[in-house]
Amino acid sequence: MTDDTRGPAPDQAHASEAPTASPAIPASAAPAAKTERREGDGILRWLLETILLVALAFLLAQGIKTFIVQPYIIPTGSMIPTIEIGDRVLAEKITYRFREPEVGQIVVFDDPTGQHPQLIKRVIAVGGQTVDIKEGAVWVDGAKLDEPYVHGKVTDPGTVPVPVKVPEGSVWLMGDNRPNSGDSRFLGAQPLSAIRGRAVFTYWPPSRMGVLD
Q1: Range of the structural domain that residue 93 is part of
Q2: Total structural domains within the chain
C-alpha cells in the first residue's frame, strides 16, 4: 500500500517556493531626481542667458558710443560760462557723417597737444573763410562777429599770425572764455578728421542740465 504521508518530491518543493522580492524603491525618489535635474538645467540656462544679455548690452553700449552719442567730462575752463570744468556733456556723432560743422556749433575734438584726450571749443570759421583778430574782437571775412557767448570778454591774438585763411577741410575753433583758452589762436585750424562729435547737451550736474548752443 502506498504511504500518502510522504512529503512532496524535492523538485516539487523547490518549485513551490515564492520568488525573492527586490528591495522596494520609494515612490517619491524618481520624481525628486527629475526635479533636481530640471532645477540644475534651469540654473545653467539662466546663467547662460545672463552672460549673453550682459555681452549684448556691452556691445550695444560700445556701438552707441562709437556711432551715435558719447559722454565727455570737460577738463578745462576754456568754455566758461557756457560749460564749466567738470561738466558732463553729450556729443552726438550722426550730424557730421552727413555734413560739415557750421559756425557757432560746439564740437569735441582730439587734443593736438596730447595733454587731454579731447578738447571742446566753438566753431568760429570754416574752410575758405579768413579770420582776423583786432579791436578786441574776431572778424571773419571782414565782418565783426556778434558773440554774445563771450559775455563781453576781450579777444586777443595768439601765436598764430592773423589774418589767416582757414584751409579747406579744417575749422577755426575758439573757447568762449577767451582770456583762458588754448585754441586755434595757438593751435591753428584743426582738421575735420579730428572732430569727434557735436556737443549738444549738458547732463551733469543737474543744476546745469540743458541744451548747448
Answers
A1: 69-211
A2: 1
